[in-house]
Amino acid sequence: MGLISGIFFGVIFGVVLMAGWSRMMRHRTSKRVSKAVDMKLLGSLSRDDLKKICGDNFPEWISFPAFEQVKWLNKLLSKMWPYVAEAATMVIRESVEPLLEEYRPAAITSLKFSKLTLGNVAPKIEGIRVQSLKEGQITMDIDLRWGGNPNIILGVTALVASIPIQLKDLQVFTVVRVIFQLAEEIPCISAVVVALLAEPEPRIDYTLKAVGGSLTAIPGLSDMIDDTVNSIVKDMLQWPHRIVVPIGGIPVDTSELELKPQGKLTVTVARASNLKNKELIGKSDPYAVIFIRPVFKYKTNTIENNLNPVWDQTFELIAEDKETQFLTVEVYDKDVGQDERLGLVKLPLSGLESEATRDIELNLLASLDTLKVKDKKDRGSITLKVHYHEFNKEEQLEALEEEKRILEERKKLKEAGVIGSTMDAVGMVGSGIGAGVGLVGTGLNSGVGMVGSGLGAVGSGLSKAGKFMGRTITGHSSKRSNGSSSSTPVNSVQDNGGAKPLKQQE
Length: 506
Hints:
By secondary structure, the chain is of the alpha+beta class. Strands 1, 2, 3, 4, 5, 6, 7 and 8 form an 8-stranded antiparallel β-sheet that branches. The protein has helices at residues 2-43, 47-54, 71-103, 221-237, 393-415, 437-442, 461-465; strands at 108-117, 124-134, 137-146, 151-158, 162-182, 189-196, 203-210, 243-246, 263-273, 286-291, 297-299, 310-319, 326-333, 340-348, 357-363, 381-390, 428-429, 432-433, 503-504. It is built from 7 helices and 19 strands.
């Protein structure tokens, strides 16, 4: 009897034990699932959402990195850098030197590399993020830093002197956007699109040192080199401008990847009010310069001895990306030698409605970097009338062909010696470029303004623009003068070479 009761109670105890164990495991599993769901929901919240939930108890050590670290890639790059640097040096000479020649100011007759080595310090990739994943495309942003030790010497020749200039203490801070166009054949990538993101703005610091001479030998040389490099970056590499590189020898249509004219911006520069007087005797002689792309600038007439000038002149500019581009307006005081800038302002195109005309009054600033402005005095205002028209497919193709023609005409004018640089404004006679008697006989101030935007491959086509490695290290100096003086050289667009308007209001 004792044996039977022992077996009975043993079975009961075992069943209860198994039931309890099973219940406990189910409870643990449900808690794990619930915790996983909570973690997934928390992972989808932003920093602001978590702060609203946690209030004052929000832990500051929680971070939300936008870029994923790639230490392994930096190790690989440091090992490969001696070979990459040697190959990149040749690519830079082939691709950047023509750009220096195309974009150099008229006051400089020659600008090329005298010596170029990239040193032994490899760039560092702070992180990579996949910005978007579309069908047939992968878009990545690469946070790039480079504090290298390159040896770069520019041979600068001007009318008054010839002097080698060394770029020292070069530092690069930028985010590079890379778009991979996918293909079904090996290597599975048919083309790569490369550009520098506008936000955060590319920052490239360097100092200029004259080798065996003085920077003062050529007046305004430092500012002219800064402007040249800055224009190349903004007009060739900074998004929405991009470089399209076909890969792998696979025949591919890259036209959809290239930047195209998106719309036309008609701007009437009406008047300015209460401008700052830069003259010791009399008043300033103001004129305005407007542009979307630095390589295509438009200039109003000069109104002498007037701080409240009325221009009423209309220009047409091409926009390629309305969401990211700006209309820049600068007002200068015409002077003997170098003109002084009275103020400038930027107008985002993203705020303009299509087919709507707006009258806008903008306050002029001493600099777009307000933190560096020492002179806080009022610089007056400028009044514009703007109208944005978005192209249809047919108009887009017409604008594309027109800009190609204009770029070719500019190249011919430069080769003929009519203009000193493609950065000079070019007058037009009637509906064509004034490359003949009209322009030569009457000077660069004849005709109407030129409309153009370009594909980014000035005069050399996409083949040269495709050499990406040579252009990723090109940049602008952050060490600019904080004053209001212009860095525009004599005979550039802000001087006598400015294009005249499309029409003048009566």
